[in-house]
Structures are given as structure tokens and as C-alpha cells.
Amino acid sequence: MTDKEIKPASQSGAVSKILIELYAQPGVSGVCLQKGRSIIKHDLPFSDDRIGNFAARVDHLVGGYEVVGRNIWQICAGFEKYWLLILSHGELRLSLLLKPDSDTSLVSSRAAHLLMQLDIPEEAAPPPVQSPMPSTNGNHPPVSKEYFVRLLSGLLGRVTGSAQASRLISRELSKYQDRPGFSVPEAREIGLAVLESIPNRGKRTTLTSEFLNALNQ
Amino acid sequence: MPIWPLPAKQNAATAECSECCSSVDKNQVAVLAFSESWHGTCWVGLTMSDGLLGTAENIRIRLGSNREIVSAPDSVFEEQHQEEARTVIYEAQFLLDYLDEFSTVLGLGDATFVAVSEPQRQTTFSYGSGDEGSSIVLTKAHRDIKQILKEIKA
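The joint structure predicted for all components is written out below.
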């Protein structure tokens, strides 16, 4: 992966200018700026689908902390080849790929400063990038079983062990063994039945709300 | 080196919160859910600056390959901090699952550490490879990540 130059575009000049400033920091190899799950700009050498998937996971991770009142402003993750720095400010998430020998503190403080300067109005945010999650608008296409299980496992995984989560889901899905997917109302009914087994009322309400939101996206 | 297992989850009791008027099953404690968003009078009323970091500026927990505690300060084993300790250990795996996904999507290789920064708290998780265990370092102040990693390896 090599450093790339971001050229300012007229409609997103301010964003581009800020990203160019970030690229001026030694060791910055890639940048992705998103608002919620919507990608505003990225310069990572992957397909938009793949980056959409990445952005959705980043938002999910940060959102998972926010929902319990923890306002994360930075996540720095180290991997064998690169470091990944994720900064969060409001709904904005700025992810930077860094070379491990870069000055993380310097890049982080510069990026945080630039992120706070960004004020992207609601109407300026582009439509969400296509994510791997199924669309349920319009005529409610079916929800694939694989997606459904992944969604529920992720939610249940926060309150119970993965084996128990798997058992709870399997028990409910045993009634629909030969089905590759479900309609949205069916998925809602099955999911709510599974989530009903969470004994803590507060957590049940939170996870149910998150489940319904994910299903309706 | 002594190995201190965490108390069995089954031993946890149910607490009553006078503010939310609902009983809270400690066995069902959610990953990350030890925040101030919970009410202040019951066991979940910890804030980020209280709890373990109320006992020291830095807390370091070393885990074995099965996520058992290999070493930790005494405060980790005090009754009022066990839930937080358990939650932090779960958080290590919770984050690792996300890192694995990021790695798959972006081709970054194995995750080696992650540091999460929030007001009054920085949590650094260092993941060992193979049979090596992991380390968790909690600090009140936000510190340079490379410095923390050096200390973990020392």
C-alpha cells in the first residue's frame, strides 16, 4: 500500500483540504471519513462495498460504547502490518491507516483537531454507501438467514456467552429449518422471541431497539 | 506464578436498584455496561473514574491463554471490583472480534493491541500470540501508546 494524494473536489473542498493536511503527516497511508455509516470520503485501496462494510463495523463498534454512555474519542489498534487509528467526534468517525513507525500521538492530535473543525451539515452528507445488510424498504425483500443469525448473535453476545446465544437462536429457528430467509415481519417476530429471553429489562429494551433499527435499515 | 481464577459467575447475586426499580441480574451483565448510564445506588452505579481506577492511577491485569487472571493488583479481587474486572476481560474479546473483522476487510494481519480512549480513562489491551496471554492496562490519564506497549513488554 502506498501513500496517495487526495485532490480537492469543488463540492468537498474543505474535507479534501483537511485530508490533505493529514497526508502531510508522516506515516499516514490511508484515510476514511464517515458520518454515521455514510462515507464522506475515503482513499483506501479497496472497493466501495468493502469500505462500506468497514465503515459500518467502525460505526457499530463506536456506537456500542455510546449506547452504554461511554464516549470514546479514540481507538488505536495495532496489527502486524499497519496501525488503525479511529477518531470519533459526534457522528463523525475518522479512520487512519498508519505505518507502525509513525508518530501516533502527533498524527492523533492533528487529526483530532482537524476533525473538530469539520462541521458537515445534515444535507451535505452523502447517501449511505451500500452496506452488506439487506435493504428492507419498499416491498420488504426477505432477510437472509445468515444475516439474521449474525445480527442476533452480535446482540446476544453482549449479554451472554456465544454458546448460549447460539442455543437460543437455534431453538427458535428450529421451527423454520428449511427456510433460507424470512420476510421482515417474520424476522421481527423470531428476533423478538429470542430477545425476550434476556432477563434484564433495561438490556432487553436496548437490544430490542437496536435489533428493530437494524432490521428496518 | 499464581493463577487466580475469576469467581464463578453463578455466585453473583441479584441487586435491587431503587432508582430504576428493577432487579438487575449480575449474571447478565453486558459487556461495557458498567457506565454512569446506570443508576447510582446499585452495584452498576460505577462511573469511569470510580471503580478500579479509584484505587490506583494504573491497573495492570495479565491474563493466561484461557483468559484466566495470572497477575493483578489486589483491588481487582475485591468484591466491589470483580464485576468491572470481569467486564474488562470480556471487553478484551469483544474488541478482538472487531479487530479480526477490520483485519479481514483491510488485510492488516493479526491484531496485536488496541487502546480505547475516553474521558478519564484509557484501556489498553495487548494480545499475545499462540499460548501467550494478554495484558490489560487501565490508566486514568491518556498516555502515549508506544510507551504503554513498552511497559507491557518489560
